Amino acid sequence: RKEVEQDPGPFNVPEGATVAFNCTYSNSASQSFFWYRQDCRKEPKLLMSVYSSGNEDGRFTAQLNRASQYISLLIRDSKLSDSATYLCVVNDPSNTGKLIFGQGTTLQVKP
Amino acid sequence: DTAVSQTPKYLVTQMGNDKSIKCEQNLGHDTMYWYKQDSKKFLKIMFSYNNKELIINETVPNRFSPKSPDKAHLNLHINSLELGDSAVYFCASSQGQGRSETQYFGPGTRLLVL
Q: A27 — contact with chain B (CB < 8 Å)?
Protein backbone atom coordinates (compact mmCIF):
# COMPACT_ATOMS: atom_id res chain seq x y z
CA ARG A 1 0.00 0.00 0.00
CA LYS A 2 1.35 3.43 -0.93
CA GLU A 3 2.06 5.72 2.00
CA VAL A 4 -0.02 8.51 0.47
CA GLU A 5 -2.68 7.63 -2.06
CA GLN A 6 -4.49 9.91 -4.45
CA ASP A 7 -6.65 9.41 -7.49
CA PRO A 8 -4.39 10.66 -10.31
CA GLY A 9 -7.39 11.81 -12.39
CA PRO A 10 -7.41 13.77 -14.62
CA PHE A 11 -10.38 15.74 -13.40
CA ASN A 12 -11.81 17.79 -16.25
CA VAL A 13 -14.22 20.48 -15.05
CA PRO A 14 -15.77 23.62 -16.54
CA GLU A 15 -14.88 27.06 -15.21
CA GLY A 16 -16.92 27.91 -12.16
CA ALA A 17 -17.33 24.31 -11.03
CA THR A 18 -16.62 23.02 -7.56
CA VAL A 19 -14.20 20.12 -7.43
CA ALA A 20 -12.95 17.98 -4.56
CA PHE A 21 -9.83 15.87 -4.25
CA ASN A 22 -9.22 13.21 -1.66
CA CYS A 23 -6.17 11.57 -0.26
CA THR A 24 -5.49 8.83 2.27
CA TYR A 25 -2.31 8.22 4.25
CA SER A 26 -1.08 5.07 5.91
CA ASN A 27 0.96 6.21 8.93
CA SER A 28 -1.31 7.23 11.78
CA ALA A 29 1.66 8.86 13.56
CA SER A 30 1.97 11.58 10.90
CA GLN A 31 1.35 15.02 12.36
CA SER A 32 1.53 17.53 9.53
CA PHE A 33 -0.39 17.63 6.30
CA PHE A 34 -0.17 19.82 3.26
CA TRP A 35 -1.43 20.39 -0.25
CA TYR A 36 1.21 21.41 -2.75
CA ARG A 37 0.48 22.53 -6.29
CA GLN A 38 2.68 21.62 -9.26
CA ASP A 39 2.20 23.27 -12.64
CA CYS A 40 3.28 21.42 -15.76
CA ARG A 41 7.09 21.22 -15.94
CA LYS A 42 7.48 23.38 -12.83
CA GLU A 43 8.42 22.82 -9.23
CA PRO A 44 5.92 22.01 -6.47
CA LYS A 45 4.78 24.97 -4.36
CA LEU A 46 2.92 24.96 -1.06
CA LEU A 47 -0.77 25.66 -1.58
CA MET A 48 -1.86 25.31 2.03
CA SER A 49 -1.26 23.43 5.23
CA VAL A 50 -4.11 21.29 6.53
CA TYR A 51 -5.23 21.64 10.14
CA SER A 52 -7.38 19.33 12.22
CA SER A 53 -10.19 21.84 12.44
CA GLY A 54 -10.20 22.37 8.69
CA ASN A 55 -9.06 25.58 7.08
CA GLU A 56 -9.98 27.85 4.23
CA ASP A 57 -7.96 30.13 2.01
CA GLY A 58 -10.17 32.00 -0.41
CA ARG A 59 -11.73 29.47 -2.77
CA PHE A 60 -9.74 26.59 -1.27
CA THR A 61 -10.85 24.53 1.72
CA ALA A 62 -8.81 21.73 3.24
CA GLN A 63 -10.13 19.14 5.68
CA LEU A 64 -8.42 16.47 7.75
CA ASN A 65 -10.00 13.38 9.29
CA ARG A 66 -7.40 11.76 11.51
CA ALA A 67 -9.61 8.83 12.46
CA SER A 68 -10.00 7.84 8.81
CA GLN A 69 -6.53 9.09 7.82
CA TYR A 70 -8.12 11.09 5.07
CA ILE A 71 -7.39 14.57 3.70
CA SER A 72 -9.45 16.56 1.25
CA LEU A 73 -9.16 19.71 -0.83
CA LEU A 74 -12.19 21.55 -2.15
CA ILE A 75 -11.87 24.19 -4.85
CA ARG A 76 -14.87 26.42 -5.42
CA ASP A 77 -15.56 28.53 -8.50
CA SER A 78 -12.72 26.93 -10.50
CA LYS A 79 -10.59 29.21 -12.66
CA LEU A 80 -8.59 28.30 -15.74
CA SER A 81 -5.48 29.14 -13.72
CA ASP A 82 -6.32 26.37 -11.23
CA SER A 83 -5.29 23.80 -13.84
CA ALA A 84 -2.36 21.97 -12.27
CA THR A 85 -1.45 18.82 -10.35
CA TYR A 86 -2.37 18.87 -6.67
CA LEU A 87 -0.05 16.90 -4.42
CA CYS A 88 -1.18 15.56 -1.07
CA VAL A 89 1.78 15.63 1.32
CA VAL A 90 2.24 14.13 4.75
CA ASN A 91 5.17 14.42 7.11
CA ASP A 92 7.14 11.36 8.15
CA PRO A 93 6.94 10.99 11.94
CA SER A 94 10.73 10.63 12.17
CA ASN A 95 11.00 14.41 12.71
CA THR A 96 13.72 14.74 10.09
CA GLY A 97 11.74 17.06 7.84
CA LYS A 98 10.99 14.17 5.52
CA LEU A 99 7.83 14.69 3.47
CA ILE A 100 5.92 11.93 1.75
CA PHE A 101 4.22 12.97 -1.46
CA GLY A 102 1.22 11.42 -3.15
CA GLN A 103 1.29 10.89 -6.89
CA GLY A 104 -0.84 13.97 -7.39
CA THR A 105 -4.27 14.62 -8.86
CA THR A 106 -4.38 16.45 -12.16
CA LEU A 107 -7.02 19.12 -12.62
CA GLN A 108 -7.88 20.59 -15.98
CA VAL A 109 -10.33 23.50 -15.92
CA LYS A 110 -11.95 24.14 -19.31
CA PRO A 111 -13.56 27.38 -20.52
CA ASP B 1 15.90 37.08 -6.75
CA THR B 2 15.64 33.31 -7.15
CA ALA B 3 15.20 31.68 -3.76
CA VAL B 4 16.34 28.15 -4.66
CA SER B 5 18.33 27.78 -7.85
CA GLN B 6 19.68 24.71 -9.60
CA THR B 7 22.12 24.22 -12.43
CA PRO B 8 21.94 22.92 -15.02
CA LYS B 9 18.27 23.05 -15.93
CA TYR B 10 18.67 20.29 -18.52
CA LEU B 11 21.25 17.55 -18.68
CA VAL B 12 21.51 15.01 -21.49
CA THR B 13 24.30 12.51 -21.17
CA GLN B 14 25.42 8.99 -22.06
CA MET B 15 25.18 5.94 -19.83
CA GLY B 16 28.28 5.47 -17.74
CA ASN B 17 29.14 9.15 -17.46
CA ASP B 18 29.55 11.05 -14.20
CA LYS B 19 27.63 14.29 -13.71
CA SER B 20 26.92 16.86 -11.01
CA ILE B 21 23.92 19.06 -10.27
CA LYS B 22 24.36 22.16 -8.14
CA CYS B 23 21.84 23.80 -5.81
CA GLU B 24 21.96 27.08 -3.95
CA GLN B 25 19.44 28.81 -1.71
CA ASN B 26 19.52 32.44 -0.62
CA LEU B 27 16.76 32.14 1.98
CA GLY B 28 19.08 31.66 4.93
CA HIS B 29 17.59 28.22 5.54
CA ASP B 30 19.36 25.53 7.55
CA THR B 31 17.97 22.47 5.80
CA MET B 32 18.29 21.37 2.19
CA TYR B 33 16.96 18.36 0.30
CA TRP B 34 17.27 16.42 -2.92
CA TYR B 35 14.19 14.81 -4.44
CA LYS B 36 13.73 12.65 -7.53
CA GLN B 37 10.52 12.81 -9.59
CA ASP B 38 10.19 9.87 -11.93
CA SER B 39 8.16 9.47 -15.10
CA LYS B 40 5.09 8.50 -13.05
CA LYS B 41 5.39 11.84 -11.24
CA PHE B 42 6.16 10.39 -7.82
CA LEU B 43 8.32 12.80 -5.88
CA LYS B 44 10.63 10.96 -3.49
CA ILE B 45 13.15 12.25 -0.99
CA MET B 46 16.73 11.16 -1.57
CA PHE B 47 18.83 13.15 0.90
CA SER B 48 18.63 16.01 3.32
CA TYR B 49 21.24 18.07 5.11
CA ASN B 50 20.80 20.30 8.13
CA ASN B 51 23.56 22.83 8.53
CA LYS B 52 25.95 20.70 6.45
CA GLU B 53 25.15 17.52 8.39
CA LEU B 54 23.55 14.57 6.58
CA ILE B 55 20.13 13.85 8.11
CA ILE B 56 18.18 11.78 5.59
CA ASN B 57 19.79 9.19 3.38
CA GLU B 58 17.06 7.14 1.74
CA THR B 59 17.67 3.88 -0.06
CA VAL B 60 19.57 5.44 -2.91
CA PRO B 61 22.35 3.70 -4.87
CA ASN B 62 25.76 4.76 -3.61
CA ARG B 63 26.47 6.10 -7.10
CA PHE B 64 24.64 9.17 -5.78
CA SER B 65 26.70 11.31 -3.44
CA PRO B 66 25.49 14.59 -2.00
CA LYS B 67 27.89 17.26 -0.80
CA SER B 68 27.13 20.33 1.25
CA PRO B 69 30.09 22.74 1.31
CA ASP B 70 28.05 25.21 3.39
CA LYS B 71 24.44 25.47 4.46
CA ALA B 72 23.46 27.49 1.38
CA HIS B 73 24.65 24.84 -1.07
CA LEU B 74 23.81 21.20 -1.65
CA ASN B 75 25.25 19.49 -4.70
CA LEU B 76 24.50 16.06 -6.08
CA HIS B 77 27.11 13.99 -7.87
CA ILE B 78 26.09 10.91 -9.81
CA ASN B 79 28.63 8.31 -10.94
CA SER B 80 28.18 5.77 -13.72
CA LEU B 81 24.83 7.07 -14.89
CA GLU B 82 22.19 4.49 -15.81
CA LEU B 83 19.07 4.74 -17.98
CA GLY B 84 16.90 4.51 -14.87
CA ASP B 85 18.45 7.69 -13.49
CA SER B 86 16.51 9.70 -16.07
CA ALA B 87 14.14 11.86 -14.05
CA VAL B 88 13.64 15.38 -12.78
CA TYR B 89 15.77 16.17 -9.73
CA PHE B 90 14.48 18.88 -7.41
CA CYS B 91 16.44 20.63 -4.72
CA ALA B 92 14.48 22.16 -1.84
CA SER B 93 15.15 24.02 1.37
CA SER B 94 13.36 24.79 4.62
CA GLN B 95 14.08 26.91 7.66
CA GLY B 96 14.65 23.83 9.79
CA GLN B 97 13.66 20.19 9.86
CA GLY B 98 10.55 20.62 11.98
CA ARG B 99 7.39 18.84 10.92
CA SER B 100 5.52 22.01 9.98
CA GLU B 101 8.23 23.61 7.91
CA THR B 102 7.39 24.73 4.40
CA GLN B 103 9.79 23.40 1.81
CA TYR B 104 10.73 25.67 -1.09
CA PHE B 105 11.69 23.92 -4.29
CA GLY B 106 14.11 24.83 -7.02
CA PRO B 107 13.02 24.73 -10.69
CA GLY B 108 14.32 21.19 -11.21
CA THR B 109 17.04 19.60 -13.34
CA ARG B 110 15.76 17.39 -16.14
CA LEU B 111 18.23 14.56 -16.57
CA LEU B 112 18.06 12.30 -19.60
CA VAL B 113 20.45 9.38 -19.80
CA LEU B 114 20.85 7.87 -23.27
A: no
> CB under 8 Å to A62, separation ≥6 — which residues?
A33, A35, A48, A49, A50, A51, A54, A55, A56, A71, A72, A73, A74
**What does the pLDDT look like over A47-103, one tens digit per residue?**
999 988 889 999 999 999 999 999 999 999 999 999 999 999 999 988 788 999 999
Q: Do A101 and A87 touch, CB atoms closer than 8 A?
A: yes
B101 interaction partners in chain A (CB closer than 8 Å): 97
What SS3 class is residue B58? coil
Q: What is the CB neighbour count within 10 angstroms for residue B106?
A: 28
Q: Which of A32, A43, A98 sits opposite B56 (nearest CB)?
A: A98
Which chain A positions have a beta carbon within 8 Å of B100's beta carbon?
32, 49, 91
For B72, residues 6+ apart whose C-beta sits below 8 A from its C-beta are B24, B25, B26
